[in-house]
Amino acid sequence: MTATPAPAAALTAVPAPAPATPAPPAAPGATPPTPPTSAVTQTPASVPAAHGPAPVPAAHGPAPVPAAHGPAPVPAAHGPAPVPAAHGTAPAVSASVTLPTTVESAGPAGPAGAVGPGVSAATPVSAVSPVSAASASVPGQAAAVDAAPTLPADPWRRYDPWSVTPLAGAADAPPPHPGAHVDGPLQYPGTGTPTEEQRRRQLRNRLLGGALAVALVSGGLGGAVGAYLERNGGLRPVELPQASAAPTGRPADSVAAIAARALPGVVTLHVSGSEASATGTGFVLDSLGYILTNNHVVQPAGGDGGITVVFNGGQTARAEVVGRDSGYDLAVVRVTGVKGLKPLYLGNSDNVRVGDPVVAIGAPFDLEGTVTSGIISAKERPVTAGGGSGDGSDVSYVDALQTDAPINPGNSGGPLLDTEGHVIGINSAIRSADDGTDSGTAEAGSIGLGFAIPINQGKRVAEELINTGRATHPVIGVMLDMDYAGDGARVGTADDTAGSPVTSGGPADRAGIRAGDVITAVDGRRVHSGEELIVRTRAHRPGERLALTVERDGRERTLSLVLGSSGGG
Fold first, then answer.
1. With contact defined as beta carbons under 8 Å apart, do 20 and 102 qualify?
2. Considering only CA atoms, which of 458, 476, 461, 493 is closest in space to residue 527?
3. Does pTM top 0.90 for this prediction?
4. Each residue of 65-80: pLDDT tens digit?
5. Which of these, 135, 259, 524, 542, has the minimum number of CB atoms within 10 Å of its CB?
6. How far apart are CA 130 and CA 26, in angstroms?
7. Cα–Cα distance, 556 to 529 (Å, whole number)
8. What amino acid positions are annotated as catalytic residues?
C-alpha cells in the first residue's frame, strides 16, 4: 500500500514583520535550510494501516481540538492565521481538508504536504469542511479542529429571471463574509447598516428638507391669504376711524344750546279750510295753552275750518282761534288738555342792535323743527304784507326787524331768538325774488331778506287778543293820500275824499293838523310815504305822545299829538 501524507492537525502561525517572500527553489540534491528556532515545525505524520488512527506528533504536545459547534473563523488573506498549539495527538479525521493550492512561506519549504511556521496563505481557502466531533476515535481527546466555512457565491448568480420569485435565491444567500450585512437581494456585498452618525445626518437632512418645504408652502399660503385680506378688508368687517364721544354740553349762547332750550316750546300748525289750507309755525306763550302765530297762517281756517297743532315731541292737539288781527298780522290760538307745555320767554326788542346774532325756528315747507341762524340786518324796517284780498283789509304794516337768517314759507309765526334764547320777534314775511313784494305766502325761497314783528308789539297785541279777543290800533285821525308821489305822507284834501280828511275832534285835529299837510317825520325820524307813516304810528301804543314834523306852504313845523285808539279787525 502506498502511503499518503495526512492532513495537518493544527497550524501554528507566528506574525511576520513583513509580507512573505517565496523562497527560491532548491537545487537537486541540496540540503534544505534549517528554519528559525522560534518557528514551529510541522511534519507529516506516518499513517500506518487503514484500521487505526495514526498519531500525529506535535512539537509541543497534542493540541486540543475545539468541539464542532460551527464553522471556524477564516484567517485573513494578508496575515497568518493563528493556529492552536498542538499539545496532544489529534484523532484521525474522517473528513478530508482541502488546503490552499498555493502556499508561500517566509522560511524554507518543509516536507511535502506540510506548512512551515510563518507561512501565510496567498490564496484564500475556497471551502473547508468542518471536522465532525462524532468521527473522533480516541476518548478524552479534543474534537477535531473546526474548519473555516465555505465562502458564499455571488448572490447575483442565484438570480433566475424565469422564476416566479427571481430574487428568492439571492435573498437566501448567506452574508459574503462574517460580520457583513445584506439588506436584500439587490444589496451589493459589503454595504452594511448605516452608522449612528450617518443616521443622525440623514435625520438632519430630512428635517431640514421638511422645514424648507413647510416654509415654502407657508410663505405661499401666507402671501395668498395676505393679498386676499388686503383686498377684502381682513377677517373682520371694515371699521372706519371715528372721533371719540365728546361732552354733550354746549355753551349757553351757542346755536345748539339755544335750539335745545327753545324747540320744546315751538309748534307746527296745520290749517285746513273749505277753500284753502296752510302750514305755519307758532310758539307757546304760557302753561294755559295759548300759542302765538301769524294771522295769515290761521286765516284759511275761516269760521268752520280746523287747526291741528303738532308739538316738538310728536304729540298733536286740536286748537281754537282766540283772536286775530290782520293789521298786525298776529293771531292767538289755544290748545287744551295738553300737559308739560314749555312756554318761551319773551325778550325786549328795544334792546336789539344791528348785527346781533339771532336764531330762527320754524317748519319751512312743512319741515318742522328747522333751525337756522343769522344776524339782525336792520331795525324799524317798514314792511307792508298781505293785500291778497284786494280791498286792503288784510294788509299788515310792520315796523319790522330785518334778518338774514333763512326764513321760508312755513316759518311764518315762528320765533326769532336772541343769544339768551328769548323771543325778540315773530317771523312774518320775506322778500321774494319772483315778484319783488313782501309776502308771507310767497313760495319763493329765502334770499336773505326776512322780516319779523318786534316782540314788544307782539306782546301787546297778544295780550289784547287773549283778554278781549281783539286788538286796538293807535291812530292819528287823518285820511292819507296813498297816491302821493312826493317825499312824505300827505294828508288828503276835500277833493280827494267824500268828507273831511281830518277827523273832527280826533288826535290830529287837536294837534292842529290841516288837510293837505305833509308829515315828513315822526319823533325826528323821516318818513317817505303814507305806508311808512302808518308803520311808524302802529309801532306805538294808543295814548302815547308823538312829535310830528309837518310841512305846510313850504314851511316845516313840529306838532305834538297824542295817539288815539281804534278797534282792530
1. no
2. 476
3. no
4. 444 444 444 444 444 4
5. 524
6. 35
7. 17
8. 296, 329, 412
